[in-house]
């Protein structure tokens, strides 16, 4: 049965992870590796563990269930759903939390299953997603005291997140705020906070600039090792694998989507007839470039959005997409493309995320 193929280079992923670990170690920072873009693929999780990672993070419990055979701690990256607490305890060793009700439920279930579960208490420093609001210090302190009072759970650390919902960047200022909260907690509790998790891959830009706030010692990283990109200034980093061709910033030759041509023809570049909207109710404008050679590919928007796919052959351009067709211009390509040939694309993060979610694409893991 035909499916477009997504080739994932696990060797390069491992080597990028080793580079990330080395870079973070310079600042005394450890990391857990976020595997969610790969939809829980055990092969990618194993690659980063082989690189030296000891905690894998996923945002869905059913993805953690896929990797129980991997020798590492498993962390639920998204706050637990109360209705799946039993599986949260069964398949994860750690989870991000900010709700008293959920913390109590985790403790009760961990006692039933006879295990210990770590809580990373989230503090919202302004991005307005998960976490106790940073100005409500007493609420933070009381939740930590609650965690310490309950059996079968423990405080793994405190953390925050940036640049996901509210677009708030990690800065020296909000980093110092998190450090101040940690130091105040340590005084009031009379003991150290185990770790302070200062965000995700966007936080790396503070290291890149040499302005990393002292006292922050942990990150939850995905994009850094997966694409080798510094995401604030948007630049490719030395010593990492990423795109080696001008196919669009934020792409990587570590992830190649290959799709088969199902039609080749030469047609006008402007539709003939009265125009309305496309299959997704969007109006369109077309530039008249005359008659040009084009091809139809056997994948569409229900597989992966074409605007995150960049042709490896830079003489090919994308024209558009319907639910199960992608149209490309091949007029300038030096390849003599025919029906049955395959066209390859490098993927950006969004395209990789969507490609890994669909059942319409098959994985191929490679070391090449």
Task: Give an account of the 3D structure.
One of its GO terms (cellular component) is cytosol. InterPro entries: Ala_racemase, Ala_racemase_N, PLP-binding_barrel. Its cofactor is pyridoxal 5'-phosphate. GO terms for molecular function: alanine racemase activity; pyridoxal phosphate binding. This protein has 368 residues and is of the alpha/beta class. The chain has two domains: 10-236, TIM Barrel, CATH 3.20.20.10; 252-366, Beta Barrel (Lyase, Ornithine Decarboxylase, Chain A, domain 1), CATH 2.40.37. The protein is built from ten helices and 19 strands. Strands 2, 3, 4, 5, 6, 7, 8, 9 and 10 form a nine-stranded parallel sheet that branches. Strands 1, 13, 14, 15, 16, 17, 18 and 19 form an eight-stranded mixed sheet that branches. A hairpin with a 4-residue loop joins strand 16 (317-321) and strand 17 (326-329). Helix 1 packs across helix 2. The longest helix has 18 residues, at 172-189. The mean pLDDT is 96.
Features:
nine-stranded parallel β-sheet; TIM Barrel; Ala_racemase_N; single chain; 2 domains; alanine racemase activity; alpha/beta; 368 residues; Lyase, Ornithine Decarboxylase, Chain A, domain 1; 19 strands
Secondary structure layout:
Elements: E1 5-9, H1 10-25, E2 30-34, H2 42-50, E3 55-58, H3 61-64, E4 73-76, H4 85-91, E5 94-97, H5 100-113, E6 117-124, E7 132-133, H6 137-149, E8 153-159, H7 172-189, E9 196-197, H8 204-208, E10 218-221, H9 223-227, E11 229-230, E12 235-236, E13 252-268, E14 291-297, E15 309-311, E16 317-321, E17 326-329, E18 342-347, H10 349-357, E19 362-366
Parallel strand pairs: 1-19, 2-3, 2-10, 3-4, 4-5, 5-6, 6-7, 6-8, 8-9
Antiparallel strand pairs: 1-13, 11-12, 13-14, 13-18, 14-17, 15-18, 16-17
